[in-house]
Amino acid sequence: MKSKNNSKIDLYSPDNFFNRELSLIDFNKRVLLEADDKSHPLLERLKFCCILSSNLDEFFMIRVAGLKGQIASEVVELSYDGKTPKEQLIEVRKQLVPIYQKHSELLNDHIIPALEKHNIAIHNFKDLPNSEKEELEQYFIDSVLPILTPLTLGPANPFPRLINRSLNVAFVLKDEEKTTEERIAFVQLPSVLPRFVKLERKSGHHYILVEQLIKEFANILFPGLLVKTANTFRVTRDADIEIAEDEAEDLLSEIAEQIKKRRWGRAAVRLEVSSKMPEFLVEMLTEFLDLEPIDVYVHDRPLNLPDFMEFLKLDIRDLKDKPFAPRNIPELNGRDVNVFDAIKQQDILVHHPYDSFATSTLKFINQAVSDPNVLAIKITMYRTGQNSPIVAALKRAAEDGKSVTAFVELKARFDEEKNITWAKELENHGVHVVYGVLGLKTHCKICSVVRKENEQLRTYLHVSTGNYNQSTSRLYTDMGFFTSNQDFGKDATHLFNILTGYSHFKDWKEFIVAPTTMYKKTLELIEREIKLSTPENPGMIFAKMNQLAHREVIPALYKASQAGVKIKLLVRGLCCLRPGVEGLSENIEVRSIIGRFLEHSRIFYFKNGGDEEFYLSSADWMSRNLHKRMELMFPIYDKRLRVRIWDSLNIYWSDNRKSWKLTGSGEYVKIKPKDPDAEFSAQDFFLDELKLLRNSEMLL
Q1: What contacts 24+ positions apart, CB below 8 Å, involve 250-254?
Q2: Are 427 and 233 in contact (CB under 8 A)?
Q3: Which H or E element spans position 693?
Q4: What is the pLDDT of residues 444-492, one digit of tens each?
Q5: Which of the residues 176, 604, 622, 653 has the least number of beta carbons within 10 Å of its own beta carbon?
Q6: pLDDT for 700
C-alpha cells in the first residue's frame, strides 16, 4: 500500500536517520545480552563478554578517535542525524557507562562465580594458603621480576610512552628515609608474561592474575620504599592508519611504520582505571594523556578482558558449544573427484560454516596447485588468519612453476602486521604480490584458476562474501560460489587487471564492481522495484548484510517504501535507517540476528516484477564499501541455487530466538514467539540439518 502525502516528507532530514556511532553501540548492547543468555554454555557467555570488550576497544581506536580528530581539526560536518562531533562524544559516553556497568555486574556476580562452581577459579592472593604464597613469591622472583622495568615519574623521568591497550600498574611510593614526598612509578606488563599464573593443584583450573603478583610483591620491586597504593590502568590510542599513498613511495614500509606509531605514538582516546585508584592519580593520568574526564572509564573488574579468551582453550566440552562436523559438498566430495570437472557440470554454492571450507574452497585451491594443467592462480587476500593453508598452497604453486598472483590488502585493519609478514613470505617463494589499488581497500573475495583444456584456456572461479580464512569460516556465516561461466571468467580477468592498476575497464558482462558501478547499480535496482511495483503486484527487496549506512541508499529505500515496495532487511550490526515510520518507511522492517556464529554473508534479492534477481556480494550498503573499496557483487542464475538462497533468507527471517526487531524509535526489541514451543533459531536449524544429513548417511 502506497503512503499518502509523500511529497511533504524530506527523505534526507536528519530526523530520518539513526546516528552511526550510537547504532554501533546498540549492536554491542545486543552482544552483551548474549553473554546474559543462560541458554549459552558458560564459557561461551564469557566469550561474548570478551567480544564486547574487544569490539569497544576498536570502537574507541577508530570511531571515537575519528570524532576527536574532527574536533581537533575544527570539522563542522554533521552526522546523518544532525549531531556535531562533540555532541556525539557526549552521547557515546552516556550510552556506554550503563553498558560497562552491566558488563562488570555480569562478570563479577554471575559468570566468574559460576566458573568457580565448575572448578575454574581466579584466586585472590590473600585467600591462598601460605605454601602457595611462598611458591608464587619464588615464581615472581625467578620468572617475573627480571622482565619488569619500573619507570619512575620525576624531573629526570618524563611520563612514559605507554603502549596502546597494554596493561599497566601505577604505584604510589614513599621513601620515608629521605622525604615524606610521594612519588609515582609505573610498570607496563610485557606481552611475554602470561596473564594467568597457574596454581598447581590436584584438580580443576586455578589461577592468579599476574598483575596481582606484581602488586603483592611490589616491596621486592621497590626495596626500601613504602608502597602506598598499586592500581591497574589501561590506555587506548588512536589506531586508524591514514596514509597519503601518492606520497608513500613504499607502501609496505609506510604501513609498517604506521603500525609502530599505532602502538605508542598516537594520541590517547580513552583511559580505563580500576575502581580503587585514588582520584588524584586518575586526574594526573588524565592530564598527562591530554584527555578529558569524559574519556575516563572506571571498571570494577579485571582490565584487558580479551585476554580471558584464553579460557576458551580449556578442554571442558560441557561448558562450550557442542562441536559440529560441517557438510561435505556432494558435488565435490570424494578423493577422486576432480573439482574442475564438477564445476564445469554446474555452478556450486556453499554456505559456511555449515558447509565445509576445507573440502570446498581449500580443496579447489589445493587441486589447482597440484593440477599440471593449471597455468595460473590469482587471488585476493584480505584476512587469512594464522598458519593459513591457502598461503602454504600458493607457495607450493609458485615453487612448482605456476604463475601465482596474490592481491594483498595491507590496510586490512588490525591485520596489517600479519599481512606484511606473509606477503613477504609469498614473495620469497616466487609469488607475485600486489598491494592493491591506489587510494582504495581491496575487499572483494575472488580466486581465479586458469586451466589449459584441449589447447584452450578455461577460467574457474570461486567468489565469496567472506575471507579466505579457514579459522573464521567456522565462526562466520558466508556464502561462496564456484563457476566456470566464461562471462564471469572474462570479468574476473579485467577485475584482476584493475587491481594491478593497469586498467580502467568498465564494460562488465556480469560483475558489479565498487567503486565504479556498484553504487549506481544499487540505486537502479531499487528504482526499478519502484517502477514495477503495483498494488496488485507490490515490489519486494530482501537483503542481508552486516551494516547499513549510506546517505543516498537509505532515502532510496524510503522512496521505495512509499511506493508500496515491501522491504525486509537483515542487518546484523549498525543501521542508520529508521523503519516503520508512517508515510516514510512503514513497508520496511529491519531485523538483527546475534548468535553462536557471526552473520557475515551479504545477499540481495529483487523481485523485479516477478523476474527475480539474486546477488551475492562482499559489500555492505555503506559509503566506505560503495565508494572507497574494491568490492564485488555478482548474480546467481542457477534455479537450484536461487531456491537455496531464498530458503536461507526466509529461514533467517523466521528466527524468533536470536532475532531483534529495530523500531522507529531506535530501540531493538527481542522477537519472541507467542507459544514457547514455537521457538525457532535459524542457526540451530542449519546445524540440525547437518545432524539429520549425517544420520541419514549412517543409515545408508
Answers
A1: 251/410, 251/435, 252/410, 252/420, 252/423, 252/435
A2: no
A3: helix 682-699
A4: 999 999 999 998 999 999 999 999 999 999 999 999 999 999 999 999 9
A5: 176
A6: 43
What phi and psi values does residue 239 have, to the nearest 5 degrees?
-120, 10
3-state secondary structure 233-255: EEEEECCCCCCCCCCCCCHHHHH
The single-letter DSSP state of residue 573 is S
SS (H, E, C) 17-54: ECCHHHHHHHHHHHHHHHHCCCCCCHHHHHHHHHHHHH
Query: pLDDT at position 243, please?
Result: 42
What is the rounded CA–CA span in Å between residue 259 and residue 263?
A: 7
Residue corresponding to grid cell 567472506? 466
371/366 Cα distance (integer angstroms): 9
Angle at 607 between CA 606 and CA 611, to 5 degrees: 115
> How far apart (Å, rounded) are the C-alpha atoms in residues 613 and 603?
11
DSSP helix/strand/coil, 547: coil
Outline where DSSP puts E strands in 502-587: 512-514, 540-545, 548-549, 566-571
Q: Could you give the C-alpha distances from 211 to 128, 171, 185, 297, in angstroms and in order?
A: 16, 12, 15, 19
Q: Are 405 and 375 in contact (CB under 8 A)?
A: no
The pLDDT tens digits of the residues spanning 121-146 come to 999 999 999 999 999 999 999 999 99
Cα–Cα–Cα angle for 438, 440, 446, nearest 5°? 105
Cα–chain center distance at 533: 37
Residue 337 neighbours by CB distance under 10 Å: 16
Residue 466: name the closest of 632, 305, 626, 700 by CA: 632
Grid coordinates standing for 526?
531499487
> Is-contact 327 354, C-beta < 8 A?
yes
Residue 552: burial class (beta carbons within 10 Å; 0-12, 13-18, 19+): middle
Measured CA to CA, the distance from residue 555 to residue 441 in angstroms comes to 26
Q: Which residue in 642, 648, 641, 640 sits closest to 686, CA to CA?
A: 648
Grid-cell match 541455487, residue found: 641
All three cell numbers of 414: 588490525
Query: Which alpha helices (H) appear in 410-509, and where do they start and end?
Result: 416-428, 486-499
pTM comes to: 0.92
With beta carbons less than 8 A apart as the criterion, state whether 548 and 569 touch.
Answer: yes
- Report the relative pairing of strands 296-299 and 613-617 from DSSP bridges: unpaired
Q: According to the model, what pLDDT value does residue 265 have?
A: 53
Other residues' Cβ atoms within 10 Å of the Cβ of residue 257: 15
Q: What is the CA radius of gyration of the chain?
A: 27
Distance CA 427, CA 560 (A): 49
Q: Give residues with Cβ within 8 angstroms of 355, minimum separation 6.
A: 326, 327, 329
Residues with catalytic annotation?
A: 443
Q: What stretches of 435-525 adopt beta strand conformation (E)?
A: 441-442, 445-453, 456-464, 476-483, 512-514
Distance CA 208, CA 136 (A): 9
How far is the C-alpha of 263 from the C-alpha of 256, rounded, in Å? 11
Phi first, then psi, for residue 174 (nearest 5°) are -140, 130
